[in-house]
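Q: Please design a sequence for this.
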């Protein structure tokens, strides 16, 4: 069964890393002692971070701020996000769109590490796509089985268990929308450009009805 969580749509929360119990106790005692002199500064700093859902970027490289999201998969540190890519092309009878891209570093929850080769942390590149069949004929098209080529020299297949069901048979005028996700070895800060590569559609006679392959070069630098 696929995991039906589209990472772009999940709520944003602010997370603060916690240490061991004795460290937390010591920290609380120190804060109480210094409260009279540091309370205003501390409250202002923490209040700003909490409202924006941001933290210090150690996991993704550098000391810049990043957005943090939490869901069943784990804790995601968002490195870059473009919600208005505006990529649209008519591929035979299929209208194909890539609307969003996002790169992140994910601290994987223990229940889902088997999906990521038992790794505790991974880099994900995620896309929001739309595929619509404009004809009455049955058309087969698989954007959820796309490949990704990175500027760091990686070629990766989409993570099938993580991506939404946005491919397969389109029985007439059908529209499918969802996320396509890739797990890459590089850190998000190393990624500057990726190519989204998808095979062209074919009809119910298994004949191609457009070009064999389509590639979309996308800037993922911050």
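A: Design:
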């Amino acid at each position: 069964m696929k995991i039906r969580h589209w990472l772009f749509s999940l709520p944003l929360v602010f997370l603060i890393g916690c240490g061991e119990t004795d460290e937390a106790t010591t920290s609380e005692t120190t804060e109480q002692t210094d409260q009279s002199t540091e309370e205003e500064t501390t409250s202002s700093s923490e209040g700003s971070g909490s409202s924006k859902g941001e933290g210090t970027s150690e996991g993704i490289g550098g000391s810049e701020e990043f957005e943090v999201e939490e869901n069943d998969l784990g804790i995601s540190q968002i490195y870059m996000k473009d919600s208005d890519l505006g990529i649209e092309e008519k591929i035979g009878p299929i209208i194909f769109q890539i609307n969003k891209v996002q790169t992140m570093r994910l601290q994987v929850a223990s229940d889902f590490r088997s999906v990521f080769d038992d790794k505790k942390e991974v880099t994900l590149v995620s896309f929001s796509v739309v595929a619509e069949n404009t004809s009455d004929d049955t058309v087969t098209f698989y954007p959820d089985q796309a490949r990704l080529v990175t500027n760091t020299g990686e070629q990766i297949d989409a993570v099938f268990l993580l991506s939404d069901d946005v491919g397969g048979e389109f029985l007439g005028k059908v529209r499918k929308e969802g996320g396509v996700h890739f797990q890459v070895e590089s850190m998000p800060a190393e990624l500057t450009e990726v190519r989204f590569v998808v095979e062209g559609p074919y009809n119910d006679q298994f004949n191609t009805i457009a070009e064999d392959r389509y590639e979309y070069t996308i800037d993922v630098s911050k």
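Q: Thanks. Anything notable?
A: The two ends are 34 Å apart (CA to CA). Residues 148 and 196 are 5 Å apart (CA to CA).
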